[in-house]
Amino acid sequence: DIAYYDQGDDKKQYRELLIINSLAKSLKQNQLFMVYQPKVETKTGQCVQVEALIRWHHDGLGDISPDEFIPLAEHTGMISLISDWVLEKVISQQAKWREQGIYVKVAVNLSSDDLHGKHIVADITNLLKHYSVPAECLMIEITESALMASYEQVINTIEQLQTLGIKVAIDDFGTGHSSLAYLRHLPVNEVKIDKAFLQGFQQEKQAQSIVKMTIVLAKELGFDVTVEGVETLSTLQTLAEF
């Protein structure tokens, strides 16, 4: 059936329709799953946090990138279905790890639709209570674009999460629509510098200067800082100096 649509937009539209229509069923069948990317402390080299990342191996289409299916889910109003599933998986996994003596904070990405929802804080509270997982074991990450979509509503949700004891980070900082002018007013705990800023990092002094100044600014404002996409020891050593 897929091969029939072998030209241009028809093929793309059919693929998107297939992804959307099979999403709910694939969640129930556990074709989607979570992987956990380590966040390493530059001073100690220890992994004390991980970021939860969703993956999908579709029966017919093979591996589907979240860069493809997440925007489709947001556009069709199905993102809450994914977010509910992810939160359940992550918090239940936390409970299993804690039983094994593994204590790490897990960061989870939420969309702007999630943050605008009236029940997201209550849903997270109920899951933490159900699995007996402390709130401080969870971190919520939001993108700059999600923050700007409805500033006051998102801030209200963030403050409620903070009250529970859940820390909040701005993901992909520097790639959205935010400005340094209002950064000091955000009730967040962490800034995550996007991996795009590491392109040419070891070869270009300008790239290093941008990252260094962003780190200095964020720390002066009282935020923790994570730099995404570190893949070489030399980059890690330079960032540790910063």
Model description:
Helices cover 48% and strands 21% of the residues. The protein has 242 residues and is α/β, with parallel strands linked by helices. Strands 1, 2, 3, 4, 5, 6, 7 and 8 form an 8-stranded mixed beta sheet that branches. Helix 3 (79-99) packs parallel to helix 5 (120-130). It is globular.
Query: Number of helical runs?
Result: 10
Number of strands: 8
Gyration radius (Cα, Å) is 19 Å
In percent, how helical is the residue content?
40-55%
Based on secondary structure, the structural category is alpha/beta
- Cα shape: globular
Kindly estimate the percentage of residues that lie in beta strands according to DSSP.
15-25%
The parts where pLDDT drops under 50 for at least 5 residues are none
Alpha-carbon distance between the two ends = 54 Å
Mean pLDDT: 88
The major beta sheet can be summarized as: 8 strands, mixed
Order of helices and strands: HEEEHHEHHEHHEHEHEH
Task: Please name the defining characteristics of this protein.
242 residues; single chain; 10 helices; 8 strands; eight-stranded mixed beta sheet; 48% helix; alpha/beta
Write the layout of secondary structure elements.
Blueprint: H1 8-28, E1 32-40, E2 47-58, E3 62-64, H2 66-75, H3 79-99, E4 105-109, H4 112-116, H5 120-130, E5 138-143, H6 144-149, H7 151-164, E6 167-173, H8 180-183, E7 190-193, H9 205-220, E8 224-227, H10 233-241
Parallel strand pairs: 2-4, 4-5, 5-6, 6-7, 7-8
Antiparallel strand pairs: 1-2, 2-3
Helix pairs in contact: 3-5
